[in-house]
Amino acid sequence: MSTRSPKQALDAAVEAGRWSPSVHNTQPWTFAVSGEEISLRADTARRLRAADAAGRELLISCGAALFTMRVAMRCEGYEPAVRILPDPDRPALLATIRPGEETQADEPTWVLGGEIERRRTHRAGFADVPVPEQLIDSLVSAAAAEGARLTPIRSAEAVGVLAALTQAAQTLQTQDQRFNLDIIRWARPPGSTRADGVPADAYPQEPAPTEPDFPQRHYSWRHGWGAQGTPAEAATGVVAVLTTRSDGREDWIAAGQALQHVLLHASAHGVSAAFHTQALEMDLLREFLRQELCSGEYPQMIMRLGVTFDDDKDVPRRPISDVLE
Questions:
Q1: pLDDT grade, residue 184 (50/70/90)?
Q2: Which residues contact 325 (CB under 8 A, 6 or more apart)?
């Protein structure tokens, strides 16, 4: 049983939560500790103004933080007691989590916990190394455990459609000043000391196209930033879509928890994810995907999974003093 105090479990959960993935590394969350309970709150000032007007991606990001805290609390020896959207009169309060009964973390939980600070978002192509089918199956199960569905896209034609829609959305967004301002706001120049956003060395200066091509965000935006020395060719990896049956705030939080479960499990097996949310940020394209490729379920994330060339770069994170109220 646990030899850690509830206070230590709370501290560990908050520290872990800030390492979670978020759209453009916005880290749109704050934590408040009262007694033996953590409140997870949405930092709506960090919402993407054009791309995420409804706050869907913000809540997915916060859902990822919630799952991370659950894992950390189990590793500290306590079963997390969680309430989702506990107060309708406080919409920014997304969840509360507190140490419940003492427990002994099992091996899979320890493995997930060990990846919290090691996991990295990838923003390029992958090495030409296959992802084992057994691992893909386990990632599908990880998403299902959190109430979402992860569907690997097996058909080359369907992969082509997803790539084409991503290309179309990327082209349209680069012509739209509102979307460009979202990118500019969260792109960090070389040498920046900011603790959020996407660093200039976190993506290739000249990305190698995949086949079919899934374009990345133009974080450098005419500045020529980016890491040099990237491969001339890159593999696409396994394309997958994360969906939910309905599309409310609770579903978005569930999608975030499922996403982080998938990412941590994949990271433990040397597999990273590259995200492509462009088409999901345009209502008509997202609805087309829902009807034509997702069997009526709501797409929450499009990703590619694969083995990376090099993903050991430091990731900026806001200090505890910024996120803990």
A1: very high
A2: 30, 31, 32, 41
> For the sheet containing 272-275, what is the strand order?
149-152, 238-244, 298-306, 272-275
Phi and psi at 274, nearest 5°, equal -115, 135
DSSP code, position 131? P
Q: Is the pTM of this model over 0.85?
A: yes
Domain 6-118 architecture = 3-Layer(aba) Sandwich (3.40)
Distance from C-alpha of 219 to C-alpha of 226, rounded to nearest angstrom? 8
pLDDT in the model for residue 232: 56
C-alpha 320/C-alpha 7 separation (Å) is 16
Q: How far is CA 7 from the centre of its chain?
A: 27
Distances (CA, A) of 103 to 4, 14, 54, 77: 11, 19, 38, 5
Q: Which amino acid is at 155?
A: S
The DSSP H or E segment spanning 156 is helix 156-174
Q: Does domain 133-306 sit in CATH 3.40.1380.10?
A: no
pLDDT digits (tens, 9 = 90+) for 110-147: 999 999 999 999 998 899 999 999 999 999 999 999 99
